[in-house]
Amino acid sequence: MGQRIFKIDGYWLDDKCEFNDYLVTDYDNTPDGYEDYDFFYYGISETNIKEIMEAGDKACGEFAITSYREVL
Fold first, then answer.
1. Overall pTM surpassing 0.90 (yes/no)
2. Closest C-alpha among 66, 69, 5, 70 to residue 40
3. Which residues contact 20 (CB under 8 A, 6 or more apart)?
4. Continuous H helices in the chain
5. Long-range pairs for 27-32 at CB < 8 Å and ≥24 separation?
């Protein structure tokens, strides 16, 4: 399977400020048809997304993810 792109919703752990529809991808390069600035985060797989969702407020890093969907 090739590179996958997801839209994530979540919030910043420090101030609980929410965000929506941030683009992430499972590879460390920009997919064709997109620009580098379109992406919030590179190198995050669906497995990583699910782990972050499970961790919630205890997620490692700066943000938590509350939902996601794959961009086709």
1. yes
2. 5
3. 9
4. 46-55
5. 27/3, 29/3, 31/3, 31/5
